[in-house]
Design goal:
Elements: H1 3-18, H2 30-43, E1 47-51, H3 59-71, H4 73-87, E2 89-97, E3 100-107, E4 111-115, E5 121-131, E6 148-155, E7 159-165, E8 182-187, E9 195-199, H5 217-237, E10 241-244, H6 248-251, H7 265-268, E11 272-273, E12 287-288, E13 317-320, H8 327-343, H9 357-363, H10 365-405, H11 420-447, E14 465-469, H12 478-493, H13 498-502, H14 511-517, H15 523-545, H16 565-578, H17 601-604, H18 671-674, H19 720-728, H20 732-736, H21 738-757
Antiparallel strand pairs: 1-14, 2-3, 2-9, 4-5, 5-6, 6-7, 7-8, 10-13, 11-12
Length: 758
């Protein structure tokens, strides 16, 4: 089979599956089975789309659910999956409609995309048919007899061209060759290309995608022919064949409902007419011979009596049962099917037998991994990207309407762009406009009162939209959930952060959602931390009462290497962290923000007034409603927003401050910076001790000698309390006890000097 015939055959088979065409001549169910398996693990019990950050109540979540309900996206996912996998790529097109947005899907043959050298979407052309109501009356003769029309859309960042035609439009046609019924050019109010292209099995450059079955077309067609031959053999040779020397009418049962056929040589040979004898038109009768196994239809079977009587001694009657399909042929067809399913990233369901539920989950791990990669392209970089563009457009509408209601007008571009005074005046006015708009946004976000006439969504930082499955393919049993909870608890007891540990128990939850779940009182965690704190305090008390073996006049707590204070503070900090989990505020991502034209670029000499045409540009897209730049956080206030919707600083774990070292002023340093990490090498890397020595990484230390800091009060003579007071407040002892201070310092020396001179 030539390449063109192979491509035509595989395209017809795939199209029949996508269109649910039951008249297809394909006998193999390989394509149907693979698509069904990918959809089962790609959609599972449903897919939920939600914003990663929604601090202002649930405005973003409710809006996304509204768009999903309007587009019936959950019901259309099956068809989108089929077309995405079969054709290799597709296009999502966003269009405003009835205070919401319509999301369209187009196959690869219905659109053309053009990218800039930087990889940004520059232009999109879409051609698709639609139907109109037929005209009646006198005007009906003026139009064509068909109700089918064709539309051609040309979309850029600045404008949208609509061409309507009664004739079929192709991408190879020029504008002059197309008979246009209507042409309309409208302004693209979004100021970016509202399209997202997704690729299945993308190449290394990410510009092209391939279908699931194109590269295996020859193998799939060979398997189809093999299955077709096997089915024909089973249908033809499946029933035993009767051999007899008696005439047919003596052996075959005659039914009263059977059509009476005209006695002839052809009727005795198995041919029959579609009409009975009474309505026969002789030569005009179409005659057929129902051959078994033809395109899957059963053959014209004949009923034979159980007991054949009145046989003469010379009569012979017998049955022959040929082997319809050999064992090797059936085994090879099964092996080829399994290899094809394996090459497609799935698994042949019929090859799994006599396994447990756990083994079934393990066997379908390959399918789950393949479907997850498809979900990454279709959900993360497709549908979620569409929602992010829609949220961005709604935020722009919010800024525009807020500026209009507040009376903030964007400055008019100067007529003479070469006039420096006018340009400087324009830049100053633009700066004031941005400042006033930012103040208005901050006021709305802090008070929560939205003025009348303001539409859209309020800016709320990061616009990322996430997705998750609403349920697994195979539900976890109670024992599975118990084992997962035990594993999570063991991780927490090992010191793993609660949020990280709970990801194993709730893999679909985000960090903020898990932090919200931890808003309760963890009595078990608190009890364990309290017991650990008590143990450290008991050890400290024991160290205070136990003399040091190397210096019996000092307690063991005086040794810096046995200091348990940092562990006490670490225990308290861990306890406070477990009780103060809170959400985080994330600023908007400039990479995922579409670039919209800025009129000021013409003045700067970096572009035209229309700006760059990009659907997913890398420039900062947080611009004002009229083109002015806004802060990168989407115009929100500089204060972070908490999880409950407020704009104040979110709840953070407390930091415990260490007591200041004598001689050092109070700096307010947290425990992370105050506690110095140990610099000694691990014990396993230390040399083997010899008799009369101690285990120490410092070779300069000798047995029987403690290492204390030079400014440690333990090494000072006199009272340690007095020394600490003198270090905290220099000169305090001299002011309080001038005689004691002079006698202890210079006085003794002077007395010694005088006595020696004498």
């Amino acid at each position: 089979m030539s390449d063109s015939n192979t491509k035509s055959a595989i395209d017809s088979m795939v199209k029949a599956v996508i269109d649910r065409d039951g008249n297809s001549t394909a006998d193999t169910m390989l394509i149907n089975a693979h698509l069904s398996q990918m959809k089962m693990f790609g959609i599972r019990q449903g897919v939920e789309f939600f914003p990663e950050q929604d601090n202002l109540g649930t405005q973003r979540f409710d809006f996304i659910q509204q768009v999903i309900k309007f587009n019936k996206l959950d019901a259309r996912l099956d068809s989108i999956w089929d077309r995405f996998l079969a054709y290799g790529k597709g296009l999502f097109y966003i269009r405003p409609a009835r205070k919401t947005y319509r999301i369209y899907w187009f196959d690869k043959d219905s659109y053309r995309t053009y990218y800039t050298p930087e990889g940004d979407l520059e232009e999109v052309i879409i051609i698709y048919p639609y139907k109109v109501k037929k005209k009646k009356g006198i005007n009906a003769n003026l139009s064509t007899n068909t109700d089918k029309r064709y539309m051609r859309l040309r979309i850029t960042a600045t404008e949208i061209e609509e061409f309507h035609s009664e004739q079929e439009i192709t991408f190879d046609q020029e504008y002059s060759e197309v008979g246009m019924l209507d042409k309309k050019i409208v302004e693209n109010t979004m100021e970016f290309i509202p399209c997202v292209e997704v690729f299945n099995n993308p190449d290394a450059f990410g510009t092209e995608g391939t279908g699931e079955f194109e590269w295996l077309a020859n193998q799939i067609i060979a398997h189809d022919e093999m299955v077709k031959n096997i089915r024909a053999n089973l249908s033809f040779f499946g029933n035993p064949t009767l051999l007899s020397s008696r005439p047919k009418q003596d052996i075959v049962e005659s039914s009263a409902d059977a059509e009476v056929q005209r006695p002839s040589i052809s009727s005795q040979s198995g041919f029959q007419s579609d009409f009975n004898l009474s309505s026969s038109t002789y030569k005009q009768d179409p005659t057929t011979r129902m051959q078994p196994g033809y395109i899957g239809r059963p053959g014209s079977g004949m009923r034979v009596p159980r007991v054949i009587a009145n046989l003469e001694p010379s009569d012979r009657v017998g049955f022959i049962t040929p082997d319809a399909v050999s064992t090797d042929q059936a085994r090879y067809a099964e092996q080829l099917r399994s290899e094809l399913r394996l090459a497609l990233g799935g698994i042949d369901d019929l090859s799994i037998s006599n396994v447990t539920a756990t083994e079934i989950k393990s066997a379908y791990g390959r399918v789950s991994a393949t479907a997850k990669k498809k979900c990454l392209q279709l959900y993360t970089y497709g549908i979620c990207k569409c929602f992010e563009l829609i949220i961005f457009q709604e935020e722009q509408l919010f800024k525009k309407s807020l500026a209009f209601v507040s009376g903030i007008k964007y400055p008019v571009l100067p007529e003479d762009i070469n006039d420096k005074k006018q340009v400087d005046k324009y830049e100053k006015s633009k700066f004031n406009y941005e400042k006033k708009l930012k103040q208005a946004l901050d006021g709305v976000l802090e008070t929560g009162d939205i003025p009348d006439g303001v539409v859209g969504l309020a800016p709320d930082g990061d616009r990322s939209v996430l997705w998750r499955w609403m349920g697994p393919v195979y539900e976890d049993t109670a024992q599975d959930k118990l084992n997962q909870s035990i594993f999570t608890r063991n991780l927490q007891e090992l010191g793993v952060d609660s949020i990280e540990a709970l990801k194993y128990l709730f893999p679909s939850k985000t960090d903020d959602e898990i932090a919200g779940m931890l808003s309760g009182y963890p009595f078990r965690m608190v009890g364990e931390v309290q017991r650990a704190l008590s143990a450290f305090i008991d050890l400290t008390n024991q160290e205070m009462r136990t003399p040091h073996p190397q210096q019996p006049n000092l307690p063991m707590a005086a040794d810096p290497r046995l200091d348990l204070t940092p562990f006490l503070y670490r225990t308290l900090e861990n306890l406070q962290k477990e009780l103060t989990y809170g959400g985080r505020y994330r600023s908007s991502d400039p990479i995922g923000t579409p670039s919209i034209p800025d009129p000021a670029e013409q003045l700067r000499g970096t572009g035209s007034a229309r700006g760059s045409i990009s659907g997913t540009g890398t420039n900062s897209g947080n611009v004002s409603p009229m083109g002015g730049n806004l802060p990168a956080d989407g115009g929100t206030s500089t204060s972070s927003a908490s999880a409950d919707g407020r704009t104040d600083t979110p709840i953070q774990p407390y930091t415990v401050k260490l007591p200041d070292t004598p001689g050092n002023p109070t700096t307010g340093q947290s425990i992370q910076g105050g506690v110095q990490q140990g610099r000694r090498t691990p014990e396993f890397s230390s040399p083997v001790p010899i008799p009369g020595s101690t285990i120490d990484s410092d070779s300069s230390s000798r047995p029987g000698q403690l290492r204390f800091p030079t400014n440690n009060p333990i090494q000072q003579r006199g009272s340690a309390d007095l020394y600490s007071w003198d270090q905290q407040q220099p000169g305090l002892l001299q002011r309080l006890f001038p005689n004691f201070s002079s006698e202890s310092t210079t006085g003794s020396r002077n007395k010694r000097g005088k006595s020696s001179s004498r």
